[in-house]
Amino acid sequence: MTLISALTAIAVVLTLAYAVLNGMRDASTAVAASVRTRALRPAIAVSVAAVFAFIGTMATSGLSVSLVQELNINVPSGVAGLKLLISGLIVAGIWGIYCWWRGLPISSTHALLSALAGGSGAAAIMGDESTRNVWGLLLSSVIIPMVLASIIAYVLSYLLVFPATRFLRYNTSRSVNEGSRAGQAVAAGAVALGLGLQDGQRTGALLSLVLITGNMMAPGPLTVAIQVTAACALSFGVLLGGWRITYTLGRRLVNFDPLRGMIAQGVAAGMLFIGSLVVHLPLSTTQAVTSGIVGAGRNQAFESVAWRNVNRVLWHWLLTPVVCVVGGAIFTLAVRPLFAGS
C-alpha cells in the first residue's frame, strides 16, 4: 500500500468517527427541549432523531456539492492535503470530546474548519503546500455564521413568544402544555431533519473531499454510496445520544415550558432548512438550538436564565476557533518530520 493510499484510508476512518461523534453530540441538541418538557421519552426521542437525520442526509446534496466545490479548489491534493485533513480531524475530535465530557454544546464544523485553518497557516509558514484562502473560509464559514445564527435564533425565539402567548391567552395551561408537547415532538423531528441537511451533508462533503484529495475519485456530484455512508455514520452517532449536553441544554441554562421549547425548536429547524436548501450556508445545529432555547426562555415574567452557565457556553463558542486554530497549527508542525521526504 502506498503512502497516499494509507493516508486516505486513515482520513476516511477519522471522518466517519468524527461523524459519529458529531451525531452523538448533536442528538442532545435535537432532543434536549423535548426530553426536558417530557414531550418525548429519551429512547423514542433519539430513535426519531436518528431516522430523520438519515432522511435529511439523503434528501439532497446541494450543500455538499457547494462545500466540495469550495474546499476542493483550496485544499492541496495528495499527501499535503491529506496531512492537513487528518490533523484537522484529530484536533477537532479531541476538542469535541473534551467539550462533550464537560457538557458544553459547541459546533463540530467550526472546530474542524478552524483546525484546518491553523494547520494550513503553519504549513504556509514552513513553506509547505497549504489550503488557499483559508482565512476567508474561516470568516465566511465560522465567524459570520456563528454570530448571525446565534443572534437571529435568539431574537426570533424571543419575539415569537409574544404572538404565541397572546393567541393562547384564553386557553387553559393544561391544554397549552399538551398541544405544545405535541408540537415539540414534531419540532424535534424537524431539527433532526435539519441536522441531516446540515451536518450529514457536510459529512458527505468531507468524505468526497478526502477521496478527491487522495486521488481516489474525480471531482463531481456526490455519489449515493457516499451519502449512505455519511447518513449511517451520523445516525449511528445520534442513536448513542450525548446525554451530558442534553442535561446542560435542558436544565442548566434556562427554565422553559413546552410552548417556549416548541418555539425554540421550530426557529432552529427553520434556520437549518433555509441554510441548507436555500442559501447553501453551513449553520451550527448546536448554536441555533441553544440560542433559541435561551431566547424563548428569556421572554418570561420572571428571571429564568442562568447567565453564568450561558456565558460559560458562549465563551467556549468563542474559544473553539482559537483553540482549534492553535491546536491545528501545533499538530501539523509536530507531524511534519514524518512527511519530510514525501
Order of helices and strands: HHHHHHHHHHHH
Report Rg: 20 Å
* Shape designation: elongated
Tell me the number of strands.
0
Number of helices: 12
Helical residue percent? over 70%
Mean pLDDT: 87
Terminus-to-terminus distance:
15 Å
Given the helix and strand composition, which structural class is it? mainly alpha
Low-confidence stretches: none
Binned strand content: under 5%
- Largest sheet features: none
Short note summarizing the structure:
With 342 residues, the chain is mainly alpha-helical. It has helices spanning 3-36, 42-59, 62-74, 79-101, 108-125, 134-167, 173-213, 224-240, 243-252, 258-278, 285-298, 307-335.
